[in-house]
Amino acid sequence: MRSPAPRALLATASVAVALAAADTYVVVLALPDMMTGVGLGIDALQEATPIVSGFLLGYVAVLPLIGRLTDLVARQRILLTCLLVFVVGSAVTAVAVELPVLVTGRLLQGVGGGGLVPATLAIVADLWPRGRRGTPLGVVGAVQELGSVLGPVLGALVLAVADWRAIFWLNAVAGLVLALLVAVTGGARPVAPRAVPAVVGLLAVVVTGLALVAPARLATDVTLGVPFVPFDGYAARLATPIGAAGLGLAAVWLALVLRSAWPVLRRADLPGALLLGTALGTLVLTFAASDPEREVVGPLGLALLPVGVVALGLYLWRHRRAAEPLVPRGVVRGRTGSALVVSLLTGVALVAVVVDVPVLARLTLTGSQTTAALVLVRFLVAVPVGAVAGGWALRRLGEAVVSGGGLLLAAAGLLAMSRWGDGALETWTATAVLVLVGLGVGLALAPVNNAALADSPPQAHGVAASLVVVARMVGMVVGLALLTAIGLHRYYAAVAALPDPTDTRALVGAGVVQVQTVFLGAALAAALGALVSLRLGLRR
What we know:
By secondary structure, this protein is mainly alpha-helical.
């Protein structure tokens, strides 16, 4: 693609990526209020896990399909579509008063937010020549990680002056503004929507929105309130005449859109996308729905994993037989395959710090979850700094040097963290180590993307970018589960060896052993990632 203002387009797309990344963590402080808003008690945390896992499911499961569509349709159109899906998801989340509606909104937010990343990375590959992509790729990686820092902060600021719904209304407004800026900075001639689908879609939004909001003046009116009366045996707002009408209009709109988009979807290998999406979705629901402090897999894990294995096997079979598979043949070759492995191992190192540093803080430093999370800020701020530095360093150094060096720094820091115990987080060296690990992880982000884009054909940049993101997310989800499993094993062994199982200090010590085990495993993953990075090329 071409753009009259490539830097402005990259800046706009990067802000959109940061907004979506912030939405991953924005529920950290708002989750109790969100649970109350949909009728869940504060003790029903297990029932509320779909609020978090639903976003991750949407983020990961459709990434390969969106990456493929990015290669078949104008990148700008994909960006705009993803932003609009994100806006709709934010609005649905904001008006939800029932858990299924809230989870649906979060799912749509994940679909729209996840699709922004491969589209933005592909735009970088289009607008910057092969030898000058390092800095813009570093910027994209930096803003993505910066969003994870700002998410809880922005959520806290909004909650200080308004309720949790205001967070998602602000998301919707910001998404609309960014969509307008993408349309302006992209420079492409806008494609006018077809009249009938546009009218049906607008009606679906208005009618379904009325059903979800259920304005008191309408819903309580003797005559106008009839469409808002639930069907017998139901209490949900969508289980009403107006809700059924809205869902019917949405189904008609979807059918019209699929009919017009079918040639592109067929070329993108929709069956393959469904199979691979199912495999990734079961992976997310198996591990992301679990409590990492107590269990390895979620409540449905044993039932979902076989489904995922079958779906993955069917996808691999289809990949060999399809004329145009979802992931074009030859994309995962050369340095791209190595880049995916490094991205996966980087995800393992990243998630270990994000999850277990607050756990260690709660065990040894404070009982406040908020205060424990603030300890992590030292690491999270360093990651985007490292990402920008890694992109800049690619001007003079090869991907292997930057990525391998960064992951070696991270491995050294994580090895030191594996010896942390009571009082370790109160020392100045803890800050230095967390910053060191953050810089090391950040340094690996741009080289991985740069190598994958450089060794994939231009018509497959979207797919290659999406696979890098998927690999990192899989590393985060599965890596945390595996490291937690090993840590829990050592924890229970330490508890079994206690002379007095009721000794609180001894139990805290056993918990510290679990956290140390996770850090040690993450150090090994980072070191292995540094070793694999050698295949990315030592020369610029």
